[in-house]
Amino acid sequence: MQSKLLTIILILSFVITSCNSNSVFDSYKTVPNKWDKDSIISFKIKPPDSINAYNLFVTLRNDNNYKYSNLFLIVGINFPNGKVIKDTLEYQMAEPSGEFLGTGFSDIKENKLWYKENVIFSETGEYIVNIQHAMRENGKVNGVKELEGIIDIGFRIENAPTN
Q: Where does the secretion signal sit in this chain (predicted)?
């Protein structure tokens, strides 16, 4: 009986690690209650090398309290030499029917959103990724002050496929 249990545990461990073998960095930060428009979620990253190419993703978890079909984010990368690159990005979060995109069997959906592909971290040192929401309601000038329904914000780096 113990050998069967050990075999099952080993198989599950192999499956879990093989699914994430492409990941170089994967971290989440929890959003307390509502995501304030002035709140910036930051990730400090030390890339493994300055030669290989990587794909970058914003990852997030949302629940049914999220009331929009899209999401606008401002994502910035601060390079070790002081250079900053900022992008304003829009992601689709729901089907036209209102059903949320993403994976998950419960009310919480997880989304892996493309940010940049084939990035080479040519500078040595620490990079900082900053993520801030930039949501606005149609016809309103001011942004949404407190965004409900976003539970966790993450950042993921994967090895880019080689041809």
A: 1-21
Question: What's the mean per-residue pLDDT of the chain?
Answer: 87
Structure-token pair, residue 116: 């940049």
Dump the DSSP string for 39-79. Answer: --EEEEE--S-SSSEEEEEEEEEE-TT---SEEEEEEEEE-
- 38 CB-near residues (< 8 Å, 6+ apart): 132
Q: For residue 26, what pLDDT is reported?
A: 96
pLDDT digits (tens, 9 = 90+) for 19-45: 556 889 999 999 988 999 999 999 999
Q: Are 27 and 94 in contact (CB under 8 A)?
A: no
The residue among 10 and 113 whose pLDDT is bigger is 113
Report d(CA 51, CA 107) in Å as an integer. Answer: 40
Give the DSSP H or E segment for 26: strand 23-30
Q: Tell me if 50 is assigned to some domain.
A: yes
For the record, the structure tokens of 108 come out as: 């919480």
Residue 6 domain-assigned (yes or no) = no
Instruction: Report if residue 81 sits inside a domain.
Output: yes
